[in-house]
């Protein structure tokens, strides 16, 4: 089966490297030829920056910014005929692809990708959605090469999961940033927190997060909450965030 | 060296089990005898619920709620003479112990303890503080049995670190709870997020959290932010939290 990648960012790179073992990746498209070239070199594929240079392939995998998926799909309509078109986004409905082909679907790897870090797809849940049963079969075949964790989710469910991921992961990472920034101003090493951050995340694999909540707010330890709030007097934004999240924990645990 | 544990909760339990290999743990005190008994049985120690039953020991380790440390220290004054008294708290100043003994210090294990989960102390940073050099030497000896990650931190630094831990860990765990609650209302499995949560935490071991921030806010993807906000219209508290943390990420990354 021949595959073309539309996009050359984090998701395209990790998917391309993983799929390259099983399929013939013909081309990598990016509006910036240099970016396409960088990934194409790793995949022994052709780099292109014009959609009219697209070759005929069995599957076109779009891994582009959410905000341009619908637009790129419309541009692809002229080139891909009835080939299978996939997008890889958690938050975009599958149906935006129907402008481009009769055969379309979604392959959403639920993971946070960094270009620098190797990814083991075997531990990544893949959420699949397809426009018809034949697409479903092809998509299952592709996905099985990547991971045993395969889920058939609707666009609405996928969107909910993506929102959950933003809350649990993107927002947590923001809190890590805030903690780092604060500790740096205090001359204390953020590195010390790293084992604790990892342990906190691991706990959730074994327990409901509600059941393993720790800290002064859930203990109702008003003296510590007050002390912390005082310590943040010079950083009013952070003080407000501290108070608000502490109040939210108290609401969730103590009042209910 | 003879040790007495004042307290029988998570920290007392994990410290007691780890120290029991190197020291003779004489007694476990808790105002609730049943709780003391449960830990004392595991340590082959005596359970007591009255301070006047305290035996003479070389070291008394207090692992009690932050809010009662000062009070318990004062009560101990009558019993422990010049023995070494330690507390194990991140947020309480060392000097509250001077009411009880000339020799006092802090042994703060920077970790989140759950009674259910075995702890490998070797990966836990220990923050030490001591009232005089002799205490410092004894404390170093005790700590070296537990972990190679030993730091000498002042009360002020320890308090900052504890505040950082609340932000990075307790608040993150709260966000995990919020995500779980939201996904449950949407009929989507929270389990799917677990690999992503762990990966997000692991990334911080390798990279500055600022550098690996992902999600719609840092991408400036207003369409997704708006969509997510709409999806939360029925949960105004969560909607507000979503908007606020997204705005904070935008402030941190885009505006600066």
Give descriptors for this structure:
alpha/beta, 256 residues, 9 helices, homodimer, 8 strands
- The strand count of chain A comes to 8
Label the structural class of chain A: alpha/beta
Largest sheet of chain A: 8 strands, mixed
Shape of chain A: elongated
The quaternary structure here is homodimer
What percentage of the residues of chain A does DSSP assign to strands (E)? 5-15%
Topology pattern of chain A, helix = H, strand = E: EHEHEEHEEEHEHHHHH
Average residue pLDDT of chain A: 94
The helix count of chain A comes to 9
Rg of chain A over CA atoms, rounded to whole Å, is 22 Å
Percent range of helical residues of chain A:
40-55%
Q: Report how far the terminal alpha carbons of chain A are from each other.
A: 56 Å
Biggest contact:
A-B, 87 and 88 residues
